[in-house]
Every structure is written in C-alpha cells, then in structure tokens.
Amino acid sequence: MWKVMLKEIKELLRDRKTLFFMVALPILVFPLLIGVVMFFAGKAVDKAENKVLDYAVVGAQYAPALVEDLAASDLFNQVMIDEGEDIAAFVKSEQADFVLVIPDNFSEDALQSGQIELSLYLNDAGLNMVRRRLDKIVDVYAERSQQKAFALLELDESQQQALIEPIVIKKVDVADKRENWGEKIGGMIPYFIFMLCLQGAMIPATDLGAGEKERGTLETLLISPIERHKLVLGKFLTIALAGATSALITVSSMAVWGLVISQGMAIKMVSEFMSAINAIDFVLMFLMLVPVVAIFSAVLLSLSIYARSFKEAQGYMTPLVFAVIVPVMLAMLPGVELKGGWAWVPLTNVALAIKELIKGTMDYFQLFAIFSSTAVIAGALLYFCVYWFNKEKVLFR
C-alpha cells in the first residue's frame, strides 16, 4: 500500500500540470486574480466618483439657493427639461443622470412647511454616486432648517437631542470579538476549504483511475503481486493527500497575501481574531476535515475507476461540485445551528462544527458523534471503492 502511494506521489510530482494546479495556482494565480478584480473594482469606483453627472431640476423657482449650489458644483452639469415632459422617460433615455423635483412647500422654516419631500428620479441599477453627492448639499439646508426650528422653540442642547431621537436603544453585546467575527465569517471558511479540497483532489483522482486506463498502465499494475485493496488504498491516500495539500497551500497563500496587501488596522484585526483561536481548536478543525477529504477521495476514485477516459471522468466529477455546495451552503443560512437534525446531515454538520470551533462556542462532546458519523460514511465509501475496483467489468468496460 505504501509503495503504491509513494509511486503515485512521485508520478504526480513529475507531472507539471498537476504541480501547477496544486502549488502554483493557489500561490500565484488566485491572489493575482483577486488583485486584478480589486484593481478594476477600484478603477470603477474612482470613475464613478469623478464622473460629472448631468441633472435637471423641476420646480427650481421654489428653491433658488439650492439650485445655485447644485450649479456651483464641479461634479454636476445642468441640462434643461421641458415642462410637462415625462420625467421617468427622460432619465431612462439617458438625457440626464437624475432629475430633482422640488415641491412648492420648500422652505427653511420646518415649523411652517412641515416635512419636505424631494423626489429624485434616477436609474439606480448601476454604480452611481448621485445620492451621496446630493445628500452633501441638501443636508446643509436640512440642518439649517432644524437649527432654526430649535432656536424658535428655545430648546437647549439636551432637548434638541431628545427631540431628534426621543428613544434610543443602547446595545450591550455579550458576545466577545471572536464569537462575533466567527458568526459573520465562520460559515464561509468551511465552504472555501471544502471546495479547495474537492478541486485539489479531482486532478490526481482523474489521473490515477481513468488516466491509467488511457496510458495502458492499469493492466501492468493489476498483474503485480500487490493485493487489489492495497492498490486502492495507495491511490486513495495519494488523492486525499493531494486534496488536503492543495487546500492548505491555498488558504495559507490567501492569508499571507491578505496580510501583505492589508493596511495596519486590518492586520491588527486579523491577528487579534486569529490569536483568539487556540491551537487545540485549529487541530480539531483539521481532524474534522480528515473524514471529509476521505469522502471526497473515495467518491472521486470510484468515478475515475468507472470512467473509460480522462474526459469521461471529468464529466462525472463536475456535477459532484454542486452536490457538495448545497449541504455546505446550508450551514451558512440564518437559523441553521448544530442542533437537532442538522447535527446528522453529512457535510453540513462538519461545516457547522468548524463554524462553532471558530466562534469558540463548540460543545466538544458533539465532535465525537460528528466525527464518528462522517468517518463511518467515509469508510463505507472506501469499502465500495475497493469493491468497485475488484470488478473486472468496471475496470475494463
């Protein structure tokens, strides 16, 4: 078994394509792609912030000072709109980025005019800075109107604050930082790790089954004095090691690059969060992944053994990604906790357990049941894989 495993690992290490997907892709390509996306996203935001917006005003006579402030801004360019024209159609036809409709009760005397409602027509489907820019100008008038009303009512500062916010709810969060952040991002971490383990195991699994058939080396391997189950176990361990290694390299790479490109405050926040998780929890997370990787490896090897060719094996394995996504995403849904029936749903229970370990709220006794049930499933799938490999009609179909 170990000789078969070492032989398969050596062949994988000689394959440049496999090494690229297992090592180079996680270390260089993923961070590069993230960097490119962030670069173009930043460019899009900068472009939106600096773009001069065309606008039109309806009811300008009711607020001449406000209209003058809009016209004085370098970020706005006024266009004319005919009286009675359909405002929504005017904006949809892209004759203006937005149209501001000022009511006839516009006034800086809030006590007399009451609440004033400005209507803003815009296409808000894309990235724009219309509301942010407009608020900077309109808020000046709103605050001025507010202060004028307070002065007329002769209210002191505490009374003004009470009038603005008559009732305030003070939140006292009893969760510590680790639990708070763990709840926010703890569900995403198992999702990424599971996907990385699966993707990292796919290429070697395809090569060790269907690839052997295409190269004609499977027959030579079968006539060797090695028992069939040891051949399967050697290939199985190789695939599992490849999946775990790919996931470990990818997560480590993303963490390192994240710290490199982050600002000092982000580094401090990440370091505080990571330091709150003790070494035992990290070890338990890794142990919970062992049967998961075993499940992936057994299923992938079974599909690869059944396939006639490399291409056919890839066709069988692709839908497996969606079969894994669904139970893992269930762990990210609101209200889904490691209680009741969810503790027995395969993959979902492991994802929830990892989330609880990250939060620091794990009931460690539950880990035995989750690990045991997942290990039983992995063992059953491995037994099926050995059974599958012993059938000649499967190997030479």
Task: Provide a brief overview of the structure.
By secondary structure, this protein is mostly helical.
Percent strand = under 5%
Percent of residues in helices: over 70%
Based on CA inertia axes, which overall geometry fits?
elongated
Q: What is the count of DSSP helices, taking H or I runs of 4+ residues?
A: 17
| Total domain units | 2
Whole-number mean pLDDT: 81
Largest pleated sheet: 4 strands, mixed
- With strands numbered from the N-terminus, the spatial order across the biggest sheet is 2-1-3-4
- The SSE string, one letter per element, is HHEHEHEHEHHHHHHHHHHHH
Give the N-to-C terminal Cα separation: 25 Å
Low-confidence stretches: none
How large, in whole angstroms, is the Cα Rg? 31 Å
Structural class given helices, strands, pairing?
mainly alpha
Work out the number of β strands: 4
GO molecular function: ABC-type transporter activity
InterPro entries: ABC2_TM
Keywords: Membrane, Transmembrane, Transmembrane helix
Membrane topology: Multi-pass membrane protein
Polypeptide structure, described:
The chain is mostly helical. It has two domains: 54-164, D-Maltodextrin-Binding Protein, domain 2, CATH 3.40.190; 176-396, no CATH class. The protein is 70% helix and 4% strand. The protein is built from 17 helices and four strands. It has helices at residues 2-14, 16-50, 64-72, 87-92, 110-113, 130-153, 157-164, 177-185, 188-215, 218-222, 228-261, 264-276, 279-306, 310-330, 348-359, 364-389, 392-395, and strands at residues 53-58, 76-78, 98-101, 119-122. Strands 2-1-3-4 form a four-stranded mixed sheet. Helix 3 (64-72) links the parallel strand 1 and strand 2 (76-78). Helix 13 (279-306) packs antiparallel against helix 14 (310-330) and helix 13 (279-306) runs parallel beside helix 16. It is elongated. The model has no long low-confidence stretch (mean pLDDT 81).
